[in-house]
Design goal:
Structural class: alpha/beta
CATH topology: TIM Barrel
Strand content: 15-25%
Strand order of the largest sheet: 1-2-3-4-5-6-7-8
Radius of gyration: 18 Å
Number of helices: 10
Helix content: 40-55%
CATH architecture: Alpha-Beta Barrel
Largest sheet: 8 strands, parallel, barrel
Bound molecules: pyridoxine-5'-phosphate
CATH class: Alpha Beta
Number of strands: 8
Number of domains: 1
Order of helices and strands: EHHEHEHEHEHEHHEHEH
């Protein structure tokens, strides 16, 4: 069974909407851990729009499962990550104006920079993963650099409007995953996976971990809303 990494950025996004402390990102991570997920994923963005510096310090201190820090290769963020020492970093492209990570990293274009950053993390025993599209050329470039883990971007698959394009996108993911695994690379996948589309991806033989955020946090709103209303009513009635 593939492992599950839960991305808690979306909890921090809700917190930032009011600029206060609720809902707590660390509390969310601890609930995910208690529920049995395998890792916590958090993206420390350059603009700190959701997860912030103290969140990542607290996560490192308080969770007992693997901490996968999603990040760009911006030197400031690299320095923070090296000091922090998460179990894994997942290197992603980052644009200020995007709503979420839109595409995979262009490993071929940034080969030199990525090789440098990867060496720095390797020295500290921090696993390095790159978030890439289902593209064998990108996978070959990651292998050339010495990266041992890839996360295949499932965004196009998740956004597919009909069955035909969904199965075309699925095939690309499956082929790329099989190719990478045949070269000894650990293969993860994520982005846009939800309760309707996760099964085929989870069924890809040998896939290591699925990283999922938005759909889990969205569902949590509805699985928790009934009780939240009842708890408030109980307080009011007192
Ligand atoms: N993996 C990576 C590298 C991501 O950037 C994201 C989104 O932050 C996810 C997984 C999770 O995507 P989603 O929130 O759509 O499940």
């Amino acid at each position: 069974m593939p492992k599950l990494g839960v991305n808690i950025d979306h909890v921090a996004t809700l917190r930032q909407a009011r600029g206060g402390v609720e809902p707590g990102a660390i509390e969310a991570a601890l609930i995910c851990e208690k529920a049995g997920c395998d890792s916590i994923v958090a993206h420390l963005r350059e603009d700190r729009r959701h997860i912030n510096d103290s969140d990542v310090i607290e996560l490192r201190r308080r969770i007992n499962i693997r901490f996968n820090l999603e990040m760009s290769i911006n030197p400031e963020i690299v320095a923070i990550a090296l000091k922090l020492g998460p179990d894994q970093v997942t290197l992603v492209p980052e644009k200020r104006r995007e709503l979420t990570t839109e595409g995979g990293l262009n490993v071929i274009k940034f080969e030199k920079k990525l090789a440098k950053v990867t060496a720095l993390f390797n020295e500290k025993d921090i696993d390095v993963s790159v978030f890439i599209g289902p593209d064998k050329k990108e996978i070959r470039s990651a292998i050339y650099i010495g990266i041992g883990i890839i996360e295949i971007h499932t965004g196009e698959y998740s956004l597919a409007k009909d069955k035909k394009s969904m199965s075309k996108e699925f095939k690309k993911i499956e082929d790329s995953a099989e190719y990478a695994m045949s070269k000894g690379i650990i293969v993860n996948a994520g982005h846009g996976l939800n309760y309707m589309n996760v099964k085929p991806i989870a069924n890809i033989k040998g896939i290591n971990e699925l990283n999922i955020g938005h759909s889990i946090i969205s569902r949590a709103v509805f699985t928790g809303l009934y009780k939240a209303v009842r708890d408030m009513q109980a307080l009011i009635s007192e």
